[in-house]
Structures are given as C-alpha cells and as structure tokens.
Design a protein that fits this description.
With about 500 residues, the protein is an alpha/beta fold. Helices cover about 40% and strands about 20% of the residues. The structure holds adenosine-5'-diphosphate.
Length: about 500
C-alpha cells in the first residue's frame, strides 16, 4: 500500500459536503449542517448538510422524473452497460483516495477498507453492469393460439438507506442491481459515513449517469430516511441497518403507498466449533478475524462462539492469543488489524454490554475496555466473554462491536438448539471434518449463509439475506435483481 500517499491524504482538507440531487451539488434547503467527527481522533474535519424532508422530496421528484421520462431505463442495454463499466473503472482508479476518505469518517482499518469498500463497490457495479444485456424475459408454455410473454421491467424509484460500517460495499449491493435494472435511486447514507458515497456518486455522473438517476441526500434517519420511507413516489425501499429502523420502514410503507421493503437487519451469528474440526489453530485464527475485523462492526460477524466442551478451554486460549496479538488502533496504518469504533455512541453502547456481562458474573477473558483514549479516538480492545448464558443480552442482541460471547455445548443437537436460539438468522459457521455432520448442520441452522470450515468471504456470486428477524430479500448475485425488477405478463391472442 502507498503509505506516503495515505499520509498525505489523511490530513488533506475536505471541503464542506453537499447533497447530490438531480446532478447538482446542493446545501440543505435551510442551510443547516452538522460536523463530521473522525473516530480516529474524535475531531471534526468537515461538515455535512443536515438534510430536510424538502431535500428528500426534491431528490425523489428528480428520481421520479428521470425514471418516467426514460432517460436511463430507455437507454439501450449496451449504453447503460458502458456507463456503469466506466463508473466502476473510475472508482477503481481512485480507490485509495476514496478508501482514505471513508476511513477518516468511519474508522475501518485501511487494509480492509480498501478491498471491502471502493474495490468491492467497483467489482459489484461491474458485475451488475455485465448482466444488463443478459437478462432475458420468458415465453410461457401456453396452449396454441396464445402467446404469453413475461417481461422484466425496472420497478421504478428505489430508496436506499445505508449503514455506516461498509457504506460503499453495501451501497453498491443496492446501487449495482437497481441501476442495472434501469431504476432511479435516492440514497441516504448513514450520518457517520456519507463522504465516500457522495464521492462515488460524483464519479457516476462523470461516467455518464444522467442527472436525477442517482441522488444522494445526507442527514438523519428520522428526517431524510423517514421522508423517503413515507414517500408516495418511492416504489422500493432497500435497507440495511437495525431491526428497530426496519420496523419503522415497514410501518411507513403501510401508511403510505405499500412500497416494497427489503430489510437486511444484522444478526447474532453462531460460529460452531466441533472437537473434530480439521485444524483448530486455523479455526481460531479465522474465528478471531470473523469477529474482530472492523472492530466487530460487521453484520455477518461471528459474534457467538459455540465450542464443544472437550476443546472449549484450549480453543478459547488460542483465541485469546489472537485477540491480544491483534494490532488495534490508527485505521490509516496499513498494519492495523482493527481500527476505530465508528462513533462515541457506538463505543458507549458496546461498553454497556460489557458492564452488564460483568455484573452478571460472566468472565471477561480478555479486553473489555476502551483503549488509546489519549488519541481522542474511539478504540476498544478485542473482547472475549466466556460463560455466557443463552438468554443473556450479550448472547441475544447484536453488539456491533469487538465482542465475542462464548458458550460450550456437549452434543450436535445442543449446538443446533443454541445456534437457532435467537430471533436472528443471518450467518453461521460450522467447523468439523465430518462431512455428514457438516451437511446436517447446514440444513438445520436457520441462517441465510452457513460457512463450513471457514468464516466470511462469500463473494458476489452468492446471495446474502437473512431469515427471521435478520430480514428479507437478497443482496449480491443475480437474485438481487428480483428486488428491482417487476414481472409483467403480456397475454396475446394470436
Ligand atoms: P445503526 O444503529 O446501526 O446506526 P440504524 O438502523 O439506526 O442502525 O441506521 C441505519 C440507517 O437507517 C442509517 O442511514 C440511519 O440514518 C437510517 N435510519 C435511522 N432511523 C431511521 C428512520 N426512522 N427512518 C428511516 N431511516 C432511518
């Protein structure tokens, strides 16, 4: 990695940010702004428009007009594909600059951010761009004398509401298929991770996205997010975030125009280690990364470790060694394995879980505290809590911090019961050399993805979505198109 370039970008002045609406850079309608605080040092480094409901409405109106007049969906597939491929190239060409900008705002370690943010966004946009001219309709097997055609048509205006942990990766998971499908989009980034999304949207316009097709409105969920959710002009809501907000979006859809709502709501994903795992050292290494990278601020983080009792103590010891050896700190140091927690609020919430676990007598095996406080930034030591009970809040709720809750189990049946014993169902892992057991576990665990002898890394070719209170709908893979395309039947008498 170009450390000299990172050093110059880390303190480069960042001009006040502006919305991107109908191809124009705009301030909030009432001029209000808020400060963007870097979790690296707790200091403000630029300002962001505190969007109003009127801002959201003008972005939605622009998206509606752009959709209805066909300036994007009416372009031939080849032309749209060219624009999106050019956009992906430009994101890739500016990847380091974009990654550093994002890290200054959200705190993810740069080694991960570079790959998982601009480079993954570019790959995602490219993947869906390449699919544009490969989406066929259908001819139904009708009786003679009729022709049944099934067209796939863009669903309309998409409202995308995005979290702060991986704004570009998750943003591209919505933008790629939505724009490739021919929809227009109004995207609201999280309050603490907007700059890099604004930057890639700007590159999208330079690459040839017509004005109004991709609009970014910054501000709070309660104002801008709610205005998008309540709009009569938005056809599809694509959301990643908390269950509490997901519930509000469903209510808003019910109150307004019954827009389709797709929710990706996080998890409390079980990582299940059997004594017959092929390599317990490898399992410990990958499991530590699976919970502690990006300081645990990962929706699919393996935050519940279930370990077969006979290897419990030895395995926890290995994990502790990894946790203690991890370099936690300055996210712009390429050697850092886990950067900053996104905000003071998120740090406080995470520490509250630890205080509660301590008061219940659970064992904080390592970590449990804030570190590097002298920097002013928001850092926390990788934390392992053992002896957790299945109904503890730390075993049931998403912490979204570098905190691993550990529980022993005796049998496969008990492991399945513990694994399925939360309201969530996003991700899971099983470590075993027993092929039959691996397949049994995959089928019995309630989750959108079950890893076997690994954790994380499922690429773009496969869908990601939750069951239960982890949500509905799928990001990634060609299945993601289902959210942004409507089926239309033409029934023709011949
Ligand atoms: P987190 O607690 O991880 O920040 P949220 O669900 O609060 O999760 O945030 C995810 C996204 O949802 C952010 O962009 C946030 O601004 C937005 N959001 C929060 N509250 C609302 C709401 N009432 N309506 C619409 N969007 C919201």
């Amino acid at each position: 990695m170009d450390t000299a370039r990172i050093a110059s970008l880390r303190s480069a002045p960042v001009p006040p940010a502006r919305h991107l609406i109908d191809g124009e850079h705009l301030d909030a309608s009432d001029g209000a702004t808020y400060q963007v605080i870097s979790p690296i040092d707790g200091k403000p480094f630029t300002t962001m428009p505190a969007g109003t409901a009127a801002d959201a409405q003008s972005a939605i109106a622009a998206a509606r007009t752009a959709f209805d007049d066909g300036r994007w969906r009416g372009m031939g597939p080849k032309a749209r594909k060219t624009v999106m491929l050019r956009w992906a190239d430009q994101i890739e060409a500016n990847a380091l600059e974009i990654a550093v900008l994002g890290v200054r705002e959200n705190g993810t370690e740069i080694a991960m951010a570079l790959k998982a943010e601009p480079l993954s966004a570019a790959a995602t946009i490219r993947y869906y761009a390449e699919a544009i001219d490969k989406l066929n309709g259908e001819i139904a097997p009708t009786e003679p004398g009729t022709l049944g055609l099934v067209h796939r048509e863009p669903a309309g205006v998409v409202g995308a509401i995005i979290p702060w942990n991986f704004p570009l990766m998750i943003g591209a998971w919505k933008l790629g298929p939505a724009l490739a499908a021919g929809c227009s989009v109004v995207l609201k980034p999280a309050e603490t991770a907007s700059l890099s999304l604004l930057r890639i949207a700007e590159l999208g316009h330079e690459a040839g996205l017509p004005p109004g097709v991709l609009n970014i409105v910054t501000g709070t969920g309660a104002v801008v997010g709610a205005a998008i959710a309540e709009s009569m002009q938005v056809d599809v809501l694509a959301f990643t975030g908390s269950g509490a907000t997901g519930r509000k979006l469903l209510e808003a859809a019910a109150r307004s125009n019954l827009k389709r709502v797709y929710l990706e709501l996080g998890g409390k994903s079980p990582n299940i280690v059997f004594a017959d795992a092929p390599d317990l050292d490898e399992a410990a290494k990958v499991s530590a990364a699976g919970i502690f990278r990006n300081s645990g601020q990962v929706c699919v983080a393996g935050s519940r470790l279930l370990v077969e009792r006979q290897v419990h103590d030895a395995f926890v010891e290995k994990l502790v060694a990894h946790a203690r050896a991890m370099k936690v700190g300055d996210p712009l140091d390429p050697e850092t394995a886990a950067g900053a927690i996104n905000s003071q609020r998120q740090l406080d919430q995470t520490l509250n879980f630890i205080t509660e676990a301590r008061s219940l007598g659970r064992k904080i095996v390592t970590g449990g505290n804030r570190i590097h406080e002298e920097t002013g930034g928001f850092y926390m030591a990788p934390t392992i809590v053992a002896g957790v009970e299945p109904n503890d809040r730390i075993a049931q709720q998403e912490v979204f911090g570098p905190v691993l809750a550990v529980m022993p189990f005796e049998t496969e049946e008990e492991a399945v019961a513990l694994a399925n014993g939360t309201d969530y169902g996003l991700a899971a892992a099983v470590w075993t050399a027993n092929l039959s057991r691996a397949h049994r576990m995959v089928r019995q665990i309630r989750a959108g993805v079950v890893h076997v002898n690994t954790y994380g890394g499922a690429d773009l070719t496969v869908p990601l979505g939750g069951v239960g209170q982890s949500g509905n709908g799928h990001d990634k893979s060609l299945h993601a198109f289902d959210k942004y395309l409507d089926l239309k039947t033409a029934w023709i008498k011949l």
